[in-house]
Amino acid sequence: MSFADYPTARAWYRAHNGSVVAAYLEHRDLAEAENEAERFFMNVVLCRVLYTHALVAAPRISLGWLRPLAPFLGDPRLGMTGIFLQLSRVLPNEYPLTGSVRSYLNAEHGFSRLVDYGMIVPRLQQLYQWSAHELAAPGLLDFVRDGAMTYAWSFENRSVWQPPKSFIVQMAQRALPPERRARRAGPLAAINAGDERSLTVTRGYPAPQVRPCDRPGRCRFPS
Hints:
This protein folds into 2 domains: about 170 residues, no CATH class; about 40 residues, no CATH class. The chain has 10 helices and 5 strands.
């Protein structure tokens, strides 16, 4: 979908995050050469931009029973989005990063910790599966494993993604649990007649959904 033709929040995220994910996929070898702190923040940035996209396009996945608030919180035209993406309080204005991952985790302010561990990490697997469909980027599924982020990051070092012992984080996890019936990543089949009557059929979900394509040759994925 072209954002210029369809200037909606969902279209903006598709354009923006599609480019981000494509760069992650193309330059993974360069990412592997970065130090531990840099690779850590690559994962943090990626999961946050995917999550803000899901706030707009998949509110049930991103915010559960509070989903009516999700589109407002994720709309890039409003100031709320910056709260989810803010890293300047933790990251120094220098490159490469010289601190350890643990030092940056200790410096993370309370709200960011609440978002990362209380809201994003518990639904990480669902988020990446949904994003892979939404962005037509199946390679994104290689960046997550059993609820741990693995982009240029060893699964054996997954302890950094474990939530800290925090009463606030635990309350957030209990108040906003992920969907019990996770939508499964399944094969996509598109029926395209080449005009405005084109259809997209997506399989692998509890109930297959059929929706009109918004443009010839373009397909819309279910939220």
